[in-house]
Amino acid sequence: MVNLLDFLKNANQFRVHTGDITSGETFRSRDFSDPSAELVESLRIQLARWQMEPSDPLDESKFALIKNWKSSEKLNVKMHENLINKVVVKVFLSSPDPEAVRVCTESALNELHLQAVDQVIVALPPFQYSKSKLPLAKQFELVWPAIEELHKRGLIDEAGVADLNDKDLQALFDRLQGRLKPKVAQVKGCNFTKELTDYAKSKGISLICHVDPHPFLTDKQVNDLFVDCFQIPEKLAGSWKAIYACRYTVMDQCRSVIVAKGYLVHFERTL
């Protein structure tokens, strides 16, 4: 058994894979206020389970991967039972980190036993929450080489962005002249302005609604998870931050239902 308190004292970073959260009754029978609340509950369950059945110990760099090793076989069966699926990976970044996009996409592929996903959507925090002071279009440009490399390797079919207004989207397109362009733009609450709608139409971009909060996982949510659920001292809990997260979703297109969904979150000790 692993003691989470001792683990957090000694680790530098760890990554949690929740596995497919649709496979049990815990999530099917509950309504969450927003996707981040669902994620927090997924993390609570996975960390509690991991303490009882620890997976990998810390490696030489004091990193650990925390996941439910028993979930992969069941998910593999589910993926083969549903032949017409659309797989979307959405990556939530706290800063323009191309390596995070690569790790999230490859990890989702491993979890789902797939060779490629249909879409990877990248979300950056609003300017007031961002660690970077660069314009949003420039931040997306910084992560775009990772998207292009994944596309070149055949791991993704399409790329997308989240929460850019028409001016930012146009600025990004201008920066990506002669390069892979986003085919999808997610907008919170279906707030499609005429300018955004017109520009997206002119560039062949699909506009899609979403309800994901920004930032996706706040420092307070991380602190409350450790302190309230696992009785971690406040000072130690406050030294851990969620650096990036992703959600993979598998949609059965024939029935328009989600057949698999899971999260990945990377934590680092900052103090």
Automatic annotation (TrEMBL):
- Pathway linked to the protein: Sulfur metabolism; glutathione biosynthesis; glutathione from L-cysteine and L-glutamate: step 1/2
What's in the GO CC field?
Answer: glutamate-cysteine ligase complex
Q: Keywords in alphabetical order, please.
A: Glutathione biosynthesis
Gene Ontology MF term list: enzyme regulator activity; glutamate-cysteine ligase catalytic subunit binding
Respond yes or no to whether keyword Transmembrane helix is given for this record.
no
Please give the start and end residues of each transmembrane region. Answer: none
Can the keyword Cell cycle be found in this entry's annotation?
no
Q: Which GO terms describe its biological process?
A: glutathione biosynthetic process
- Indicate the segments forming the NADP-dependent oxidoreductase domain, all copies: 94-226
The lineage's top-level taxon is: Eukaryota
Q: Name one Pfam family in it.
A: Aldo_ket_red
Q: How does it assemble?
A: Heterodimer of a catalytic heavy chain and a regulatory light chain.
Homology family: Belongs to the aldo/keto reductase family. Glutamate--cysteine ligase light chain subfamily.
Record-given protein name: GCS light chain
Naturally occurring in which organism (per UniProt):
Trichinella nativa
